[in-house]
Design a protein that fits this description.
Blueprint (H helix, E strand, L loop, with lengths): L7 H9 L10 H10 L30 H32 L5 H29 L1 H26 L17 H30 L7 H35 L2 H21 L14 H13 L9 H24 L2 H10 L4 E2 L2 E2 L6 H13 L1 H13 L8 H28 L17 H25 L5 H30 L17 H25 L3 H15 L2
Antiparallel strand pairs: 1-2
Helix pairs in contact: 1-6, 1-15, 3-4, 3-6, 3-7, 3-8, 3-11, 4-5, 4-6, 4-16, 5-6, 5-8, 9-10, 10-15, 10-16, 10-17, 12-13, 12-15, 14-15, 14-17
């Protein structure tokens, strides 16, 4: 059974809910299978049943390729890549502010544009893997990632002048255009390498398990959770590195550590080249999409099922897809404006300085906890409040709940900012005596919102998209995330343009103590409520694909003699 980029979003769902696990097949078991024989598709029984191939393009022999041995190597590679990437993602706002001398609005805009590009680069990896195969794209992407981190480390060495600059409140000297250009080239190479790798590596890891074999299918399910855990461990370790960096301004060591991590990840990836299971590249998915659209146009006046129904399904989904763009705008505040806000607060606990970006650990804990205990906490509460015996909230209900939590998050962030301004020192140092621990609730709320929205969003759109248009679903998913990040940049630019008129500092000025970031948070809360209203309206009118199929069958039964 050939797999392509069309299944990539389905894999993403496996990684949010369970995903993999295999028991190795020993020689005796293989011998028994060979003796018994099943003759499936004319292949010897020892071969995998899903159509996977070895490095020579021949059918895979079970026990010689894939399985846990290959899967665990990919787990380590994923964890190392995630560690390196999140070091940059969590630190880029403060680095551009204190090292690159950008204002708060400029640093957040830099981050928004970069994150938008990160999501678009996921499409590059997905489509290239359809032509060249997932193993080659994973390898090439990690090479690009290694080059990007090498350039980042080299550029940081040139940018961190004078010695000791780059810590919170300690600006570095102005930089030459060439040094700035090298920094931007490096971070966009990292965006390309990481997302091209991440969008393919997870699918490639799933390829190591034969879904047609019951034992390996169960293993694949367990492995999916381990893949998520590997990513979260990488994020947590990156937060620990930032504890040291943000308080001292020693950016160079963690960038070189990140470079070492991606080099090690590449070595691990290459180490199992002979054992990996592969699938024949499926080619360009766009002809299939074009064929469906043409068929839809030709059969537009017919009252019979046609490929055009697939396009109609996509068109019915579009309003809901557009509403999910806003979630990226809200979630982007955590690594950007939340971090800038935290950098101006008192982070001292005993003799320890809490790094602003390190507060994201509460988001990770909140998201992971809600996903793991969803069935034990949320579902019983839902049953108690609604007096129903429904086993779970429907996907659209969970997305709507996530938007409600996002509104509360923005309101709380605005209230915290009001208190931060109240306790500001009134100097030009942009500091406040309000403690950073007041940030914990908004990070926990944001994590809960992400858990509700992101997981349900993937489950819903994967289930509602026709099989023939899975590639289009992936395109829209990544584009929505990218558009949300670009929209955040645009909103911030417009708000500052309007509020900074007539000599005013604006809502998000270079010194947050001179502005009103609280009003910006309240604006985002209002816009999120508006988006929630539109989402509820579209969700109420939406008819699921299963309901459409049931109604269609009933109509056919009524017409049948």
């Amino acid at each position: 059974m050939q797999q392509s980029v069309n299944e990539m979003v389905g894999l993403g769902d496996d990684l949010v809910a369970p995903g993999f696990e295999t028991s190795p097949v020993d020689t005796a078991a293989v011998f028994e299978l060979q003796q018994s024989g099943n003759g499936e598709e004319g292949l010897p029984p020892a071969h995998t049943k899903d159509g996977s191939l070895d490095r020579y393009g021949k059918p895979d022999v079970r026990g010689r390729t894939g399985g846990w041995k290959s899967g665990l190597v990919l787990l380590v590679s994923q964890g190392l890549v995630t560690l390196a990437f999140y070091v940059l993602e969590a630190s880029i706002v403060l680095f551009t502010k204190y090292v690159m001398r950008q204002t708060n609005a400029e640093a957040e805009s830099t981050f928004s544009l970069w994150m938008g590009t990160v999501y678009l680069c996921s499409l590059v990896g997905g489509f290239l893997s359809d032509y060249l195969g997932r193993y080659l794209i994973s390898t090439y992407a990690q090479v690009v990632l290694t080059v990007g981190f090498g350039l980042l480390s080299a550029s940081a060495n040139a940018l961190l002048k004078p010695h000791g600059c780059g810590a919170i409140g300690k600006l570095c000297d102005p930089h030459a255009p060439g040094e700035v250009s090298m920094f931007y080239i490096s971070i966009y190479l990292i965006a390309l390498g990481n997302e091209a790798c991440e969008s393919v590596l997870a699918t490639f890891a799933a390829d190591q398990f034969d879904e047609e074999d019951p034992a390996e299918k169960q293993s694949k399910t367990s492995f999916g959770w381990y893949f998520v855990i590997a990513s979260n461990i990488g994020r947590l370790i990156s937060m620990a590195l930032l504890v040291y960096t943000e308080s001292t301004g020693n950016w160079l060591p963690i960038f070189w550590i990140s470079t070492g991590c991606v080099i090690t990840a590449l070595v691990f990836l290459l180490s199992q080249t002979r054992r990996y299971r592969r699938f024949k590249p499926s080619g360009n998915p766009f002809p299939r999409i074009a064929q469906v659209i043409v068929a839809s146009w030709r059969n537009r006046n017919l009252q019979v099922p046609s490929p055009g129904e697939e396009v109609k399904c996509i068109l019915r989904l579009l309003p809901l897809w557009l509403c999910t763009i806003w979630s990226s705008v809200v979630f982007l505040q955590m690594p950007s404006l939340f971090t800038e806000q935290g950098a101006t607060m008192d982070g001292t606990i005993l003799h320890f300085q809490v790094p602003p970006a390190g507060m994201i650990v509460f988001d990770i804990i909140s998201t992971s906890t809600l996903i793991v205990f969803y069935d034990k906490l949320i579902v019983p509460l839902h049953i108690k409040l609604t007096k129903t015996q429904s086993k779970t909230l429907a996907e659209l209900q969970r997305i709507g709940t996530g938007f409600v939590i996002a509104v509360v998050t923005m309101l709380f962030a605005g209230l915290v900012e009001q208190q931060r301004l109240k306790y500001s020192d009134g100097s030009t140092k942009e500091m406040s005596s309000l403690h950073i621990l007041w940030h914990i609730p908004q990070y926990i709320l944001m994590g809960a919102s992400k858990a509700m929205v992101c997981v349900a969003e993937k489950e819903f759109f994967a289930a509602e998209t026709p099989d023939g248009l899975k590639s289009l679903e992936m395109i829209l998913s990544f584009c929505c995330s990218a558009l949300g990040d670009y929209m955040c940049h645009t909103i911030l630019w417009v708000v500052n343009k309007i509020t900074a008129s007539n000599g005013k500092a604006g809502w998000v000025p270079p010194n947050l103590n001179d502005g009103h970031a609280d009003r910006f948070f309240f604006l985002l809360a209002a816009l999120t409520m508006l988006n929630l209203g539109l989402f509820v309206m579209f969700a109420y009118r939406y008819i699921s694909i299963s309901t459409q199929m049931r109604d269609g069958i009933e109509e056919m039964e009524e017409v049948a003699p």
